[in-house]
Amino acid sequence: MKVSFVILSWNRYKFLDECLSALLPSIKNNTETEVIVMDNGSTDNTHVVLDKYSSNPLVKIVRRKKNHGLNAYKRLFGMAKGEYIIIVDDDVLTFPPAVEEIFIDYLKAFPDYGFLALNVVQNEFTLGAKPPIENYVEEIRGEKVIEKGPTGGWCACFEKKNYNKIKLRFLLNDLNMAKGEDGLLVNLFSRKLKLKSGLIKNHYCLHACGPHYAKVYGHMDRELEKYENAGLHSIVEEYKNYK
Question: How far apart are CA 143 and CA 145, in angstroms?
Fold first, then answer.
């Protein structure tokens, strides 16, 4: 297996449906690719969405009765058989064509990088969770450009051989909103393997985060619950004010 996409979803079935509808056609190599989707204890119509894709040979579905939070990524990464693992947030709604080949090409061109993410569409409704541009420095190799700096896990790739080197330390950490899977991977790759992280400048996805998309897709109450449980009160107020 060359590439494993992993998607963790909880009570955002409308996002998940649109995410999968966009992701699957963007994959060029169907013969060496798997898409693992984990239902993290959803109580909405996530099961209905997943039933639509149950006969797709690319899609492997894992259903869990209990919400294990971000720690569920530990199981997802363990299940992934690919040489490259691509994390996809279920609120990423557009992808560039041949998305897996983009990641492979860039990781080969930038072997000193351990974690690469697509750039994000920024519009009047969302900044895609990307920090301001002054946090980034460009690195150019040939026609390829990386923005070195804060790297979110909205649609991000790393090599399994590198993950295996820091796997034990990753598994020993408790993942939560303050210490997410992406931040921990970036930290471990940097500290233990001296590998950098960054964004692929000229290839974009739409990361539909923020209160506008939560309202449009009917996931506002779910987002409020998530941020309230995490104690992120400033974000809770932002969402309530938009509601």
Answer: 7
pLDDT digits (tens, 9 = 90+) for 158-174: 999 999 999 999 999 99
State which amino acid sits at residue 209: C
Number of compact structural domains in the chain: 2
Spatial CA neighbour of 93 closest among 57, 126, 124 = 126
| Buried residues in 86-107 as b, exposed as e (16+ CB within 10 A) | bbbbbbbbbbbeebbebbbebb
Residue closest to 117 by CA, chosen among 91, 154, 89: 154
227 & 123 share domain: no
Rounded CA separation 37/70 (Å): 14
CB-CB contact of 160 with 81 (8 Å): no
Tokens representing 42 are 């959803």
Question: Taking the complete model, does pTM exceed 0.90, yes or no?
Answer: yes
Residue type at position 237: E
Each residue's pLDDT tens digit, 191-202: 999 999 999 999
Mean pLDDT of the chain: 96
Tell me, yes or no, whether 139 and 222 share the same domain. no
